[in-house]
Amino acid sequence: MSDKNHLNEPSSELTTHTGASTELAVQDKFTDPGVPAHRPRLADIDPKSAKRNERIVIWLFVLSCLGAIGSVVAYVAVPPDGTTEGVRTSTLLLGLGIAVSLLGIGIAGIQWAKALMADTEMVQERHPIRSSDEVRADAVKDLNDGLEDSGVVGRRGLLKGAAVSALALFPLTIAVPLIGSVGGDWNVSKFKHTMWKKGTRLAIDPSGRPIKVSDVNIGSAFHVIPETSEEYRESHEWITEKSKAVVLMVRLRPEELKSDQSPEGEQWSHEGIVAYSKICTHVGCPVALYEQQTHHLLCPCHQSTFDVADSAKVVFGPAKRPLPQLPITVDDEGYLVAQGDFAEPIGPSFWERLK
Q1: Which of 154-163, 178-187, 244-253 has the lowest mean pLDDT?
Q2: Which of 37, 204, 227, 317 has an alpha carbon within 20 to 30 A of 151's alpha carbon?
Q3: Cβ–Cβ < 8 Å for 281, 322
Q4: Three-class DSSP category at 204
Q5: Which of 214, 295, 217, 223 is nearest to 256 (CA)?
Q6: Which of 268, 296, 301 is nearest to 285 (CA)?
Q7: pLDDT of 160 strictly over 80
């Protein structure tokens, strides 16, 4: 019995021998390839090439500076004037300036690293926590050599100046618009009321064509704005007033509506047609994704979901309040009209809610 147990026990000598053999086999099969031989770049052996690459990097930084200055000029010279065309032009010029500034810095940094900085691979072996004085001195020397090769200090003063200028000017592309907006209109009480008034017709966004009941089929959804004159839609006020008054209107079967009345019992829908503010009550993103089968409205920013069939109550997501409902009816000509403004202020819940 003891002989069998002895035979079944693994031999420590055999284990050691097997482990050593395996390690030797691994070493024989996988050898350390070491660091490949350095292949010099053209800029390393040709001073003209190095100078040419330096000029390229300098001009890229100069381009970045011009882009930053251009964005500031665009912000001051072409401010958004309230019209769609004006806002589009201002945003385009400001965005182009920021893009040129940032791309100039990024491409210049890449070109600098690839063509001018040292690319020799170095290996540093593992060592105790504190290196010897000789190793520490060598490390300091390597750092100084790296700084010298990168051109950050010492030589290439023009390149250094261009880089510093580009990095110093780029923050202006963000700081100037932010500072300029500090003195803006922060009167959030303006969101307590919109353009909707009793008798205002519902119109299709963006054409402004009034909507008849016969135009709205069951399951359809309309992006709605108040009916106004074409002249007003070209005015400076329109884009601001429209942003507060935008509505999403859908038509359900009347029996699918769980609630279509105000707290006072007034009828706020017409033959299954309901209208709600498109401004999410979470942070104000446009709620415009309608799922016909579930009657859910989805906010694409943070996935707040509202039930159209039940007074746009929140069924999922971070929003805390239902979407404000626009009370609607129909006039004598068959057009859908508002009964009045929203019953409560539109927009996120963190704003003041006093009526």
Answers
A1: 178-187
A2: 37
A3: yes
A4: strand
A5: 295
A6: 301
A7: no
Average of per-residue pLDDT across 281-304:
89
CB distance 256 to 296 below 8 Å: no
> In whole angstroms, what is the distance from residue 200 CA to residue 211 CA?
11
The rounded distance, in Å, linking the Cα atoms of 113 and 58 is 13
Q: What is the reported pLDDT for 133?
A: 84
Which token pair is 250? 């859908």
pLDDT recorded at residue 181? 59
Token readout for 205 is 């966004």
For residues 115 and 317, what is the distance between their CA atoms, to the nearest angstrom?
50
Cβ contacts of 78 within 8 Å, gap of 6 or more = 86, 89, 90, 93
Q: How far apart are CA 246 and CA 190, in angstroms?
A: 15
Percent of the chain scored above 70 by pLDDT?
79
Confidence band of 16 (pLDDT split at 50, 70, 90): very low
Give the relative orientation of helices 47-77 and 172-182 as an angle to the nearest 10 degrees.
Answer: 10
Number of C-beta neighbours around residue 154 at 10 A: 11
The SS3 assignment for 52 reads helix
Domains and CATH numbers, the chain: 42-123+131-180 (no CATH), 189-338 (2.102.10.10)
| Phi, psi of 7, rounded to the nearest 5 degrees | -70, -35
Q: Which residue from 337, 344, 347 is spatially nearest to 197, judged by alpha carbons?
A: 337
pLDDT band, very low/low/confident/very high, at 11 (cuts 50, 70, 90): very low
- Cβ–Cβ under 8 Å, residues 192 and 244: no
The per-residue pLDDT for range 311-341, each reduced to its tens digit, is 899 999 999 899 999 999 999 999 999 999 9
Neighbours of 258 (CB within 10 A): 13
